[in-house]
TrEMBL record:
GO terms for molecular function: gluconate transmembrane transporter activity. Its main location: membrane. This is GntP family permease. It comes from the Bacteria. It is found in: Cell membrane. It comes from Scleromatobacter humisilvae. InterPro entries: Glcn_transporter. GO terms for cellular component: plasma membrane.
């Protein structure tokens, strides 16, 4: 296999990418420019500086924005509707009351467990918008640091996103490397459990000290799950709160649909008549839409809200997330400029030239592409493709461990070019610096822990 050599364009795009990221940080942190504008400026600079034809620079940015908002934006909106109805119906209070039973020290572990369960079939963004009302209300009620509960929830979601099928990254890597789904899932769970524990409840203790914001400082505590949200909409209160069983059935309903689709992808032949039906109902957009319609009953008419009140609450749920969606979209535009400019390809050449073991090489390539492009899925797919020729002769278990090492690398140090970074920042009302100290470091802990565990398993198997 020929070792790739960096050319002048590769060097150029790497330098431009570094400058572009620096520009975004300076504009936001020092000049206090809105993140949407800063990301747009950074994306256009990177596009022009990387050699994309000037007439196509804005098209590249628009493609990235549209790609994110066309999917994630819809999910954010639908999730916000469910979250609003959950909070205003008293359902979030019911969940928190249940969580707060027992010793307070167990609450972060319960939050991580719930997030991990939700994160099995869900994309990170969907799980986050569904969990936010519960996390924020738990912070309000426990009167503890927001990050003490926020970090475990984020860790539970993120670990599953990086390691466990049916998430798109792991599934793509399994397909590219021709790994076994069952073996990857089993080994992935072995890696996921300690990774969630270390990066979640344990690192949450550190994060809460680094960023000691409480209920009052957490941004969307009053828009998605706080007491003020519950008293909006003309102070209409529910006549009674939903039962815990109804709450869990509503929240788990989209998960069941998506798990059914995942099972069909693995176990059903493409010619099966049930396959297209399950593909349709298990798509996250349909599943969350169905959850909204169900929530309008279980968290709406069943607790005493009239159709008119429900309409107002649904409308009110969208206002707080408009800014979040624009920022997340701009993050997607910046990522697309990096990808189209060739930054990912340049980084891949560097890593492949290092001549490391397949497992370690996969992790490093994924780390570098993640740092450059901000996309965990792009990092996973690209890294898996690069190491595929080197992994061709590995045993099934070792192939699955390469999939997991690539997944671990794809989570490394999320920062300003990652749409997830801005989603977390805006939802928790943190500054860029605070988001780096909490979310970015947490992602790095997951990545390094995942590498250590996969490497250890590779020596044992």
């Amino acid at each position: 296999m020929t070792t790739p050599v960096l050319d002048a364009h590769d060097t150029q795009v790497l330098v431009v990418a570094a400058i572009g990221i620096a520009i975004i940080v300076v504009l936001i942190v020092w000049l206090k420019l809105h993140a949407f504008l800063a990301l747009t400026v950074g994306a256009l600079f990177v596009g022009a500086g990387s050699g994309i034809p000037l007439g196509k620079v804005t098209a590249s940015y628009e493609t990235g924005v549209g790609g994110v908002l066309g999917y994630v934006g819809v999910l954010i909106a639908l999730g916000a509707m469910v979250g609003k109805l959950l909070a205003d119906s008293g359902g979030a209070d019911k969940v928190v009351d249940t969580l707060l039973r027992g010793k307070p020290a167990t609450l972060p572990w319960k939050m991580a467990l719930i997030a991990a369960i939700i994160g099995i079939p869900m994309f990170f963004e969907i799980g986050l918008v569904l969990l936010i009302p519960v996390v924020m209300l738990a912070v309000h009620r426990s009167q503890g640091p927001a990050m003490r509960l926020g970090i475990p929830a984020l860790a539970g979601l993120s670990v599953l996103h990086g390691f466990i099928p049916p998430h798109p990254g792991p599934l793509a890597a399994i397909a590219i490397l021709h790994a076994n789904v069952g073996i990857t899932l089993a080994l992935g769970l072995l890696v996921a459990v300690p990774a969630v524990a270390i990066a979640g409840p344990l690192y949450g203790i550190v994060a809460a000290k680094l960023v000691p914001i409480g209920a009052a400082g957490a941004g969307l505590a009053v828009t998605q799950g706080g007491d003020k949200a519950a008293k909006a909409d003309h102070d209409v209160e529910p006549t009674h709160s939903p039962s815990f069983g109804a709450i869990m059935a509503t929240l788990l309903f989209p998960l069941v649909l998506m798990i059914a689709k995942a099972g069909a992808d693995i176990g059903l032949d493409k010619s099966s008549p049930a396959k297209p039906v399950l593909d349709f109902v298990g798509d996250p957009v349909f599943a969350l839409l169905a959850a909204v319609l169900l929530a309008m009953v279980t968290f709406g008419t069943a607790v005493g809200f009239t159709p008119a009140v429900l309409g107002k609450k649904i409308g009110a749920s969208l206002m707080p997330v408009v800014g979040v969606m624009l920022i997340v979209g701009a993050g997607g535009g910046f990522k697309q400029s990096l990808v189209d400019g060739g930054t990912g390809a340049a980084i891949a050449k560097i890593a492949l030239a290092a001549g490391l073991s397949t497992l370690l090489l996969g992790w490093i390539v994924a780390v570098l592409i993640r740092l450059a492009t901000g996309s965990a899925t792009v990092a996973t797919v690209t890294a898996a493709g690069i190491v595929a020729p080197l992994a061709a002769g590995l045993a099934p278990a070792q192939l699955s461990l390469v999939v997991l090492s690539v997944g671990a690398g794809s989570l490394f140090f999320s920062h300003v070019n990652d749409a997830g970074f801005w989603l977390v920042k805006e939802y928790f009302g943190m500054t860029v610096g605070q988001t780096i100290k909490t979310w970015s470091i947490m992602e790095t802990v997951i990545s390094v822990t995942g590498l250590a565990l996969t490497y250890g398993l590779s020596l044992m198997l």
